[in-house]
């Protein structure tokens, strides 16, 4: 459904429990590991359960965008006569929202199909999303798959499942050109929602299949986006994460800009915290950084895709910036917000990356106040320019470089944590309980914990950072004014 046809969501009857975690995704500017700890779909209806007849289970792979979209798709079922169940449970229908960003992501889709059929050999299985979009025939030929829908068609999954023939002899395959824009947001445990504000990408970086899988960059108008934001604001959610493929590109086709959207969101009542997921370095301009620096609502937490620390490799990747632009962004952020968290994506093993290029990347990252890295090992994606490049890097070299970058990331994180020791910060407590502790994130995205207290759930508390524990979670004490 496109934006003009968007209907207000009716979720008061729905409680979504996200049980799995979005995985890092370099090409979608994947968020942090901790966000990645943020569960997936497998939602449960808490009311009218007895009136429901059919059961459906969702499994989502890939980026936060997929997760936000799964929630929107799942709502159509819960508003009808379906019960949402965990993917590990027996269901009448299984839906796999796929990702194609790496080989590994595709393997996970195939494993999920097998898992579903083991649980219920009679179930119908639908595969939707990026993998379906790019290689529908490959999925169609997997035994037990009944429906394959691309990124345009996935929003009509409900109709496809409802209209399924009982004998299911014919497979239902639909993959048109991805061009609709469908808004969406996830509802987790009251605390945080991933809010889709943009889709697609016009950049065609040479390693990335996303523009082929998700189509050109598009978004709704600011007015329509604010309407959906208002629906999130009407819930108990305290924190919203703005999500998209290339969110800095928001509004391009409407003569609007991402900065204009942020200005409006800043005024929105009912959402206390907003995080901006990754923004391309050249789009993360000083206006945006200054807005965040002067805002109580936008969190001092940035995610900037670097991908390589050499201009030579950046050019081969067809990235739109030189490393100095990235450096400048990091420095401006730290000048205005010394304790801001800055995460950076880096890909290692891109074709032609020499030892010298790699060492330059390591030196460049070492020289900057980056808080931690998302490290991705280059994976050849069919249909992309980089897949046909000569000088593909051998696997063992990629693995070795990846280990070095992970170690560098750990060092960076340790340093960032030390810089925060003794500081005062706001933490939003979440609902999970582990070993008698409750955990949450500080405004600058440090995971904290304290002894469990049910009254703290979904509350923002001013705390003092004491010390990280052995798992890297900061122990805090309440701030005593
Ligand atoms: S083409 Fe480049 S900018 Fe666009 S999604 Fe892929 S990596 Fe990001």
Task: Kindly describe this structure.
The strands form five sheets. Strands 4-3-5-6-7-8 form a six-stranded parallel sheet, with helices on both faces. Strands 16-17-18-20-19 form a five-stranded mixed beta barrel. It has a four-stranded mixed sheet with strand order 9-10-11-12, sandwiched between helices. It starts with 13 loop residues before the first strand and ends with a strand. It has helices at residues 33-36, 64-78, 103-119, 130-134, 136-140, 157-162, 210-214, 222-233, 258-267, 286-293, 311-316, 323-336, 355-366, 395-420; strands spanning 14-15, 44-45, 54-60, 82-85, 93-98, 124-129, 147-149, 172-174, 184-185, 192-196, 239-243, 273-276, 301-307, 341-348, 372-377, 424-434, 437-442, 447-451, 460-468, 474-478. The protein is globular, with a radius of gyration of 22 Å. It is of the alpha/beta class. It is built from 14 helices and 20 strands. Among the domains are: 3-174, Rossmann fold (3-Layer(aba) Sandwich), CATH 3.40.50; 303-316 and 326-420, Transcription Regulator spoIIAA, CATH 3.30.750; 424-478. The structure holds iron/sulfur cluster. The site of iron/sulfur cluster has 12 residues, from helix 7. Iron/sulfur cluster is lined by residues 27-28, 201, 203-205, 208, 210-211, 245-246, 280.
